[in-house]
Amino acid sequence: MEDALQYLDLILQDMSGHLRALYNAAACKERLGDYEGANMCIIEYLKGKPEDDEALDFKKRIGAATGTRTRVASLEGSHHNH
Fold first, then answer.
1. 55 domain residue, yes or no
2. Which pLDDT belongs to residue 10?
3. The domain that contains 33 carries what CATH number?
């Protein structure tokens, strides 16, 4: 799992918005117990695919594991620009 995560991190260094790499990195981090890191990756993923039900469920699961809110910041923060 750690080897896969290292590979995904290399991809994300060059292509930070690579959605599949973000999703898979989130899954690896979750399995390794890095829920905060998983949460950050899945939030970035959801910025590109906000309607992805599987990813939204994943976000809820991570939120439950960490006790964090499950809303996606990019989808709720537009009021700051007004």
1. yes
2. 93
3. 1.25.40.10
Residue 65 lies in a domain: yes
Domain that holds residue 47: 2-69
CB-neighbour burial class of residue 34 (10 A; exposed 0-12, middle 13-18, buried 19+):
middle
**Environment class of residue 13 by beta-carbon count within 10 Å: exposed (0-12), middle (13-18) or buried (19+)?**
exposed
d(CA 35, CA 48): 20
* DSSP state at residue 71: S
Q: How many domains does the chain have?
A: 1
Q: What is the pTM of this model?
A: 0.76
Please tell me the total number of residues recorded for the chain in this structure: 82
Q: Six-digit token pair at 70?
A: 């499950």
* Spatial separation of the C-alpha atoms in residues 31 and 49, rounded to whole Å: 22
Task: Evaluate whether 26 touches 38 at the Cβ level (below 8 Å).
Answer: yes
Note the pLDDT tens digit of each residue in 8-27: 999 999 998 999 999 999 99
